[in-house]
Automatic annotation (TrEMBL):
Coiled-coil region: 298-325
SMART domains, sorted: CBS
Presence of the UniProt keyword Lipid biosynthesis in the record: no
Keyword terms of this UniProt record: CBS domain, Coiled coil
Domain CBS: 17-94, 103-163, 170-230, 239-300
CDD domains in alphabetical order: CBS_two-component_sensor_histidine_kinase_repeat1, CBS_two-component_sensor_histidine_kinase_repeat2
TM spans (from-to): none
Protein name as it appears in the record: Putative signal-transduction protein containing cAMP-binding and CBS domains
Organism annotation: Allocoleopsis franciscana PCC 7113
InterPro entries listed in its UniProt record: CBS_dom, CBS_dom_sf, Diverse_CBS-Domain
Length: 339
């Protein structure tokens, strides 16, 4: 294996840190925060063709998945897309509510001096069941924020992703609903099942389902910003469609590429004419880079190498024995050929 093509590649850490996160004061109204989160940040390029090379697609920040609440340079709390879904599912009216009333506190932080590789952040994501990690300096002052999405965007072509299949990390318990489901009920489903999306389906006549579209946490943020009546808005009128489908045998590198190319954080997996369903998210991709997961993979690879080496040695020994068996007869065979 070449030095510049390692099995495990640790990307440039600076690329994972958003140095300009959205910041609001505690008195900011919740509706104003949602409006901020729904606005595109950075430069967004136009839609690209499906065969556009990944490296030629400009990077962009898009909508923010979180907001930090600060006052007098002190970090007070964090508010995310998931919080919006949960508030929506609980039927809480957003009018007049201040962000300080619904923010999450305390905030999970990490000193930048300890942020030596992405694996530390991934470990904290998994252990604390969160998707954002605030980076601070030695004086506990804000330096930026790292998210699962920012880490996924910076991943480079790693052999580790190319060696793994979608089937190894996908979630098979896919939450789905018919097209006539209200968006409010979709939000309730997300909150109850603790998922980030609901796939909109219809029966396909083969004992399975056909995917029509998808509604995600980020969509709920947009609908709230637009002040839609979620109880009366049906999935079929607002879902993202059509869907790009993966197969379980596709590599994780392909899944990562498609997420990058299509500007999404999850993809639906389908097989056996829709009888089998699954979904792969950026959280699933992060599992591959979890240190515990990686150690397991390395152990499997080491055992495979040892087994191949043993088989190679056994094969060489077998060929040697066969050759030695024929050596006594070789001079006679040569004399016969000379005559």
């Amino acid at each position: 294996m070449q030095p510049n093509d390692p099995l495990i590649y640790s990307p440039a850490l600076e690329e994972a840190i958003d140095r300009n996160p959205l910041i609001v004061t505690p008195d900011t109204l919740l509706l104003d925060v949602i409006a901020l989160m729904s606005q595109a940040r950075g430069s967004r390029c136009s839609l690209t063709e499906a065969n556009t090379p990944l490296e030629s697609i400009p990077s962009y920040e898009g909508h923010s998945s979180s907001v930090l609440v600060m006052e007098d340079n002190q970090l007070l709390g964090i508010f995310t897309e998931r919080d919006i879904v949960w508030l929506t599912a609980d039927g809480i009216p957003f009018e007049g509510i201040k962000i300080s009333e619904v923010m999450t506190q305390p905030v999970l932080t990490m000193p930048e001096s300890n942020f030596q590789d992405v694996f530390a952040a991934i470990f904290l994501f998994r252990r604390n069941q969160v998707r954002h990690l605030v980076i601070v300096d030695d004086q506990n002052q804000l330096m930026g924020i790292v998210s699962q999405e920012s880490i996924r965007r910076m991943l480079r072509p790693a052999n580790l992703l190319k060696l793994r299949r979608v089937s190894e990390v996908m979630t098979t318990q896919m939450i789905h609903a018919p097209a006539t489901t209200s968006v409010l009920n979709l939000a309730r489903l997300m909150a109850e099942q603790r998922v980030s999306c609901v796939v909109i389906t219809q029966e396909n006549g083969y004992g399975g389902f056909f995917p029509l579209g998808i509604v995600t946490e980020r969509d709920i943020v947009q609908f709230q910003a637009l002040r839609l009546n979620l109880a009366q808005t049906l999935a079929q009128t607002v879902m993202s469609t059509p869907l790009f489908l993966l197969h379980p045998q596709d590599t994780l590198w392909k899944a990562h590429q498609e997420m990058q190319r299509r500007r999404v954080r999850r993809l639906v997996v389908s097989w056996d004419l829709g009888r089998g369903w699954g979904i792969i998210t950026q959280s699933n991709l992060m599992r591959v880079f979890d240190p515990v997961e990686m150690y397991g993979v390395i152990e499997i690879l080491q055992r495979t190498i040892e087994q191949l080496e043993a088989e190679k040695a056994e094969l060489l020994q077998s060929h040697k024995a066969e050759l030695e068996q024929h050596l006594p007869y070789l001079p006679a065979q040569l004399n016969q050929q000379a005559d």
